[in-house]
Amino acid sequence: MSDEEREQREKLVRFGALLYERRLAHGSAGNLSVRLGDGAILVTPTNSSLGFLEPDRISKVAPTGELLAGDPPSKEAFFHLAVYEERPAAKAIVHLHSTHAVALSCLCHERDDDVLPPLTAYGVMRVGRLPLLRYFRPGDRALAEAVREAAKRHHAMLLANHGPIVAGRTLEEAVHAYEELEETAKVFFLLGERKASPLSFEAIAELNRAFSS
Fold first, then answer.
1. Could you tell me the residue range of the domain that residue 31 belongs to?
2. How many Cβ atoms sit within 10 Å of the Cβ of residue 180?
3. Domain Class II aldolase/adducin N-terminal, which positions (predicted)?
C-alpha cells in the first residue's frame, strides 16, 4: 500500500467520524470517496457507519468499478465513479442524508436547475448553483447517467427525496462545501415565508470574478 493510499484511508476515517459527530451522517447512511493518483477510488463500504470506519476495510475500486481491496463498496459507488469520469479535477466526493438538505430535496420547486437561493457569499462560492435531479430508488443504476449529466456543469447536486452529492479537489474542500450547503439549507428553512434579500446577480458575478479558480 502506498503512502498516499494509507494517508487517504486515515483521512476518510477522520472525516467520517467528524461528520458523524456533527450529526450530518447517521446510522449507515451516506458515503465518502477519494480518487488516488493512480486513478483507483477509495470509497466507504456498504452498510458501514461513517462514525466507525476502519482504514483497512475501506473499499478500493478500479475506475471501472471492480473491487481491488477492502470490503464491498457502497451500493452507491457507481455514481461516485460517474462524477469522477465527468470532472477530472475532482478528487473527493461527499454524499450524506443530512436533515435540512434532505428536506430541501423533498420540496416542490418551481424550477429544478437551481433550488437553493444565493443567500450568502460562502454559499455561492462553495456550492454555487444546485440542480435537483429526479427521484431514483437507492441503488438504481439509471441514477448514474443523471448524475453524470449534471456533473458536466455542477460540482454539487441534489437527489430528489434523497440528499446531496458534492465533489471537491480535496476531501477537505468537499466536506467544507457540503457543510456550507447544509447550513445554507438551514438558513433557508429558518427564513421560511419571510421576505428575504438574496444576493443580486451583480454580487454573484463579483464573487465569481474575485474567487474563481
1. 3-211
2. 19
3. 10-189
